[in-house]
Amino acid sequence: MYDVQNIRSDFPILSREVNGKPLVYLDNGASAQKPQVVIDAVTRGYAEEYANVHRGLHYLSNLATEKYEAVRGKVARFLGVPSEDSIILNSGTTEGINMVAYGWAMPRFEAGDEIVLSIMEHHANIVPWHFLRERQGVVIKWVDVDTNGDLDPQKVIDAIGPKTKLVAVTHMSNVLGTVVDVKAITEGAHAKGVPVLVDGSQSAVHMPVNISDIGCDFYAITGHKLYGPSGSGAIYVSPERMAEMRPFLGGGDMIKDVRRDGVDYNDAPMKFEAGTPGIVQTIGMGVALDYMMDIGLDNIAAHEASLRDYTKSKFDGLNWVQVQGQSAGKGAIFSFTLEGAAHAHDISTVLDKKGVAVRAGSHCAMPLMDHMGVPATCRASFGMYNTTEEVDVLVEALELCHELFS
């Protein structure tokens, strides 16, 4: 039995007020709140257990190393990966995708080679490829979504040509909530000999992910959206691609031996983890993953699906609300505008006065905004702890906005 009130009690921030109103936190797409077990793990990590990892033989270093390295296996289980050696720990999805761009793509791509992207991509899965466009003459090919915000896998596959070297797509749009059939895209791309990178920042927190089933070459996640600390994350890299990658950063931990005339690199995945990592942040992410898996990823997904359906039913009754993206089976993410001249920032400000936290702007997805023909939207994005009562508060606040701006 999914007890949302019991779950809410695990998140201390949800009991506070904002502007004299109970906090209704609907900005989970940007970053999720943290349960007490994660807060306790971070506090304990600094107050009682802190030391650098991998480099010491004393008790605290061994303890920190043990807890840090255990996260690699937790990520593997969370993502349905058979071997933790395919998991590179990092600061989040942005670092993971840049690692692929610098460590795998840059030494392999030449002028005229192509990267296929969907128009829904977050800037973190666009800008690194623009680096290759600017510096090496790589060509970016875009695949649009339809009027509902769906991405046809076959259109992505059809965009692959003889010079295509990579397909990089989101698993779930952070703006529209659209769930992309990345398995079909991967199968089609692999049939043409093209690797696939998947941005799992949104999907991993909202739905069970099984990379063994998807079959992609790269899959990136970020800890702060997974109810863990900021500065934590991981990327799955298939064994074949791992063997092809060169180190992105150089420094401690990623080496076996350093000499005046050369260097011997460590074995993967350590080969790609230079310097002192985010030790406590990563340990905190591992605790957050344990917390989610204890609740059950299917249970969380079912709860959020019910919130999605309830919110859609409420929004359908507000003919002055324009929701961007109507994909069936989308995640519990709603980007919207109101009829009239109200800017998303103004709407967000009014909602904030009612204690409702939403995101306003382009959501790091400017090409998608241009495609939809809107300068900005408000976005209400839900998490495991949100309730239908909070949806009602959102709707009531939007009705106030309608009165003010119509």
Brief digest:
This protein is α/β, with parallel strands linked by helices and 406 residues long. It is built from 15 helices and 17 strands.
SSE map:
Blueprint: H1 4-8, E1 17-18, E2 21-22, E3 24-25, H2 36-47, H3 59-79, E4 87-90, H4 93-105, E5 114-118, H5 127-136, E6 139-143, H6 153-158, E7 164-170, H7 182-191, E8 196-199, H8 203-206, H9 211-214, E9 218-222, E10 233-237, H10 239-244, E11 255-259, E12 262-265, H11 279-295, H12 297-316, E13 321-324, E14 333-338, H13 344-353, E15 356-357, E16 359-361, H14 366-372, E17 377-381, H15 388-405
Parallel strand pairs: 3-15, 5-6, 5-7, 7-8, 8-9
Antiparallel strand pairs: 1-2, 4-10, 9-10, 11-12, 13-14, 14-17, 16-17
Helix pairs in contact: 2-11, 3-11, 12-15
Unreliable runs, pLDDT <50, ≥5 residues?
none
What's the architecture of the largest domain in CATH terms? 3-Layer(aba) Sandwich
- Rounded mean pLDDT score: 97
Q: Which CATH top level class of the largest domain fits?
A: Alpha Beta
Number of domains: 2
Largest sheet at a glance? 7 strands, mixed
CATH H-tier superfamily of the largest domain:
Type I PLP-dependent aspartate aminotransferase-like (Major domain)
The number of helical runs is 15
CATH topological fold name of the largest domain: Aspartate Aminotransferase, domain 2
Q: End-to-end distance, in Å?
A: 43 Å
Strand tally is 17
Strand content: 15-25%
Basic shape: globular
Helical content stands at 40-55%
Rg, please? 22 Å
> What order do the strands of the largest sheet run in, or round the barrel if closed?
4-10-9-8-7-5-6
- The secondary-structure class comes to alpha/beta
